[in-house]
Amino acid sequence: MIDLNQYFDPVCLDKPESEPLKGSAAFSHNVVVNTGNEPIDDLSSFAVALIGVPDDRSSANTGSSHAPDAIRKSLYSFSRLQGKMKITDLGNLRPGASFEDTLAGLRDVLIQLLEQDIVPVVIGGTSALMPAIDRCLSSAKEDWSLVSVDSRLDFTAEKRAGDSLNWMNDMIYRSGSRLSHLSAIGHQTYLTDQQVVNRFNRRHYDMMRIGEVRAAVHETEPLFRDATAAVFDLGAVRQSDAPGTFLPSANGFYGEEICLLARYAGLSDNLKILSVMEVNPVLDTRSQTSHLAAQLIWFFLEGFSQKQYEISYLGDQLNNRFTRYHVTLSDLEGVAIFIKSMITERWWIEIRDTDGQPHFLACSYEDYLSANRDQVPGRWTRAMLRYGR
User: Fold this and answer.
1) Which option is the CATH number for 4-304: 3.10.180.10, 3.10.290.10, 1.10.287.3510, 3.40.800.10?
2) Angle between helix 67-75 and 288-304 (nearest 10)
3) Which pLDDT tens digit goes with each residue over 122-158?
4) Where in the sequence of the chain do the CATH 3.40.800.10 domains occur?
5) For 94-120, what is each residue's pLDDT tens digit?
6) How far apart are CA 201 and CA 44, in angstroms?
7) Reported pTM
8) Residue 145: in which H helix or E strand, if any?
9) CA 92 to CA 35: how far, in whole Å?
10) Which run of H or of E encompasses 317?
11) Which of 38, 75, 178, 224 could anchor a disulfide with 264, C-beta 3.0 to 4.6 Å?
């Protein structure tokens, strides 16, 4: 195991001029902070680790390296989380001599935390850091899936050096990557290359434009439930709510909507890594964007504290927690099996691959209703194509 003390600078924040919440009412009551007075030692009791990565190289978004501490300043002004979930703030990852060294260091830290069943919350920095997450998750030699919340699809058709605007290229085409599925949430059509959309459709990725999300935001929850990692680019938020971004847009998510998506991510059984990227305090107005990013993290943690672990029990047909519904569809051979949790009221579809092995695809109540109307749900069709059925 690596010595994390060699990788991090301790947290160092100025005392705020005013503290509306103090003592046991404050967020700091939930957190054990690496202040440098005591070394990072036993992390076995922690469920979540906050990691700042103050590196904005391989990006034109100069100034985003200041984001981790700016976001922390707001986060520590919030109220405590209910329950007994333990969080550690490891501080800021020391930038490497080169950006590639930073990626290697972040990968090593993430691997160690996941081996200890700790969920890292990576506070960037820019989306150019995302390849480190891929290298971490792919090192386990298991397929993994990603949800990206962004106003753009950070993929380019031409070959060029990796940066914050084409980090998806590295994941999709890198020979060692085990990325098996991508869900893109919130992209705006006038900011997106249609050829990239067509390419993603051919790969059977799930994509929801900003208008589709706003019309049915609850339909994003199953995408987070199936994801291994999620990345939130604050450029997905409208400029009036998040002015401190490098590529702002007049349209986008409202602050409340992006926080709801973060809560969905926190509730996910599968999610192992959350990353929050592209906040630039140099471009911000009265720390508005840093404050929103901190709220996003708080709502993720609030959802995490209420997580219900159900996936491992889905295959147990005798478990009274679930009800199975068998639906006959004229376009399919046999029946479709929907599973509903009687506790959380979440839904899944049982899918079998070419070897007959069952897989449980997160879905919504609307998917079940569609099947009852003899309509095959779109997310099911895409999943079947991915499994070669």
Assistant:
1) 3.40.800.10
2) 60
3) 999 999 999 999 999 999 999 999 999 999 999 998 7
4) 4-304
5) 999 999 999 999 999 999 999 999 999
6) 41
7) 0.96
8) strand 144-149
9) 11
10) none
11) 224
